[in-house]
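Q: What does the assembly look like in three dimensions?
Context provided by user:
Components: three
Sequences:
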Amino acid sequence: MNKSGFSILLFSGDYDKCLAAMILANGARDLQMQADVFCAFWGLLLLRDPEKLSMEDKDLYEKMFTAATPAGAENLPLSKMNMAGAGKQMLLNMMASKEAPNLVEFLNGAFHNGVRFHACELSMKIMGFKSEELLPGVEVRNVHEYLQQARQAEIQLFI
Amino acid sequence: MNKSGFSILLFSGDYDKCLAAMILANGARDLQMQADVFCAFWGLLLLRDPEKLSMEDKDLYEKMFTAATPAGAENLPLSKMNMAGAGKQMLLNMMASKEAPNLVEFLNGAFHNGVRFHACELSMKIMGFKSEELLPGVEVRNVHEYLQQARQAEIQLFI
Amino acid sequence: MNKSGFSILLFSGDYDKCLAAMILANGARDLQMQADVFCAFWGLLLLRDPEKLSMEDKDLYEKMFTAATPAGAENLPLSKMNMAGAGKQMLLNMMASKEAPNLVEFLNGAFHNGVRFHACELSMKIMGFKSEELLPGVEVRNVHEYLQQARQAEIQLFI
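A: Here is the predicted structure of the complete assembly.
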């Protein structure tokens, strides 16, 4: 069996952890490794298209959930020291002063560099997300597909 | 060396992360992979039997800890948006409306499907948990046993 | 390819998660496995030398960040039940009563046992940490170096 990939199960919807995931996935592509990011639960929030959120055909809880969660990647909170956004703004300022890209730029770079994004089918169903609400190019996959892909990879991380 | 297993080190005691761990472990069993879940620190809270919590032979801190932590799997909080339980209730409602099993059902399924559960010996000692307080079928293991088993697995995740 | 290592990407700066990382890395060394701990983002807080924090040549945000973050390993908060330090103190008391080492003792043991520590170059740059502020023996590495090392390991965890 030829193992040559890098696999992330992105469960977290934190700005800093998503940033780490994107830096790793882009780094793997630089090394010509196949890179797969399987987004589940809060990790799906990275893949929502802020322009395409919809309340159509959603039940009450799904509507509440759509409204209560960050609309897109740049709106995600930090995993710690978020301090109602003040800590996050500080991190963003520190990143900008070093001319580091922000999360959406890293995410766009990842799509452009051939990182493959997958959305967890069961999480989509539970949270009431529709595939039309996600960024273009994302494939919906189930847990068996994740496991089959991850076991071929050289590195598997849960973030 | 024949690698064919799936290994989780479950450190988190969050409802949503434990749910993810159980869905993954059950999925691995569907694919005929051996699946091992090694519970450490907060992850031990998944394995406590709510009927068997005991204050006997515990020192003051151990009693406080027993009393201050969730008594069983269904009492675990969400890793985010828990909002004093309101966010968790919303998730439970969303799961129920899709007829998704709850955590205890996934956990029972995992035992039934042959997922092997291990409790970290050092964590048990520090937190003052006794093996009689855990669900039946859980084996107490040390860190060397975890590492020896994990290095045989195809996929290792820290959750 | 000869795989015989244990690799941790330590992203978290939580006391309990750092403790788990050190116990695992020391355990891997006991088994004669090479053990590498690559510290990124909040994980860098484990490697700061409390005696060597400096405000020199730092911009305003870097100074604020230096001041707002825990000065060394023993000052890190718990990932949950920290309760403004009360929960952490309870854990420390429980550990001490079992004569378990604290985090700094595990960390020193890890250096002594030959665990190799790496600091993420990009995280250092963004947070404004200088290599002189870190514990002696820590090497600064980039994401490509992490990936190249991790793909040689038998076990890779993101903590």
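Follow-up: Chain A touches chain C through 28 residues (CB under 8 Å).
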